[in-house]
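[audit] Reproducing an earlier prediction to check determinism. Same input, same settings, fresh worker. If the C-alpha cells differ from the archived copy the diff job will pick it up downstream; this log only records the rerun itself.
[audit] input (252 residues):
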Amino acid sequence: MMFRKILFTWAISSLVLASAVAQAQTSAEIVQNALNSPARPAEDVARDSSRMPLEVLAFAGIEEGMTILEMEAGGGYYTEILSRAVGSNGRVIRQNPPAINSFFSEEADVRLANNRLTNVGSTLVNFDELEAEDNSIDMVTWILGPHELWFSPGGENLGDPEDTFVEIARVLKPGGVFLTIDHNAASDSGTDIGGSLHRIYEGHIFDLAESAGLTLLRSSNLHSNENDPLDVGVFDPSIQGRTDKFVLLYQK
C-alpha cells in the first residue's frame, strides 16, 4: 500500500512538472514571436540581451488572451512585448505614478502614438490606487520597480507599501500571478535604500506579498550576479546594467 501511494505521488508530481515545462515551452514560443516582430524599435532589440524578456516571460507563463496590468510601465520596453504576446484578444494596462511619469513620457508617447499598440491602455495613478476591477487581471508585472515604494521624488509619495500589495491581490483573478523583478540589496538593509540606492532586499517584498495573501510560486536566478556588492546605487558605472536582481512569481 505504501509503495502504491509513493508511486501515485510520483506520478502526480511528474504530471505537474510536465505541465509546467509544456507551459514554459508554449510561453517561450509566444514571446519569441513577439520579439521577432519587424515593427519593434531597433533600440528595444538592442536591449534584449541584458533584459532577457524571452526567459523572463516564459518563466512567468504568459499566454495569449491574457489581461495584464503592467505596473510602472515606464517608457514601454516591456509594454511592446506584452502587447504582441497577448495578441488581439488580450489587453495590457500600463500604469505609471504621476510624480515620475515625466521621466518616461517622451519615449512612451512615441511608442503609443497613433494607436500603434491597439490593445494597450494607460493609467496615471499611484501604486496603491490601481485602476482595475476586483478579480479582473490575469497577470500583474512590476519590473525593476518595487523599490520605488520608498522613493519620494519632489517629496511626493508614490504609494503605501502595504496598501500597494493589497491592491495587487485585489485586482488579480483567483489563480492569477504577480511577476516582480528588482535590484537586490543586502539582507540586513532597510527599506529606506529603495529611495537612495534604488534597491530593495527581496525578503521585504516577500513579506509584503505574503501579508497580502499572495503565495510564492517560483523564483529564478536569471538575473543573478554574485559579483554585485549590493551596496552601491544601481546607476553607479561600476554596476549599472549588471546588478544582481531577484525574479519572483507569486500567485493569488
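[audit] rerun output stored. Observation attached for the diff report: Residues 1-22 have pLDDT under 50 and may be disordered.
[audit] end
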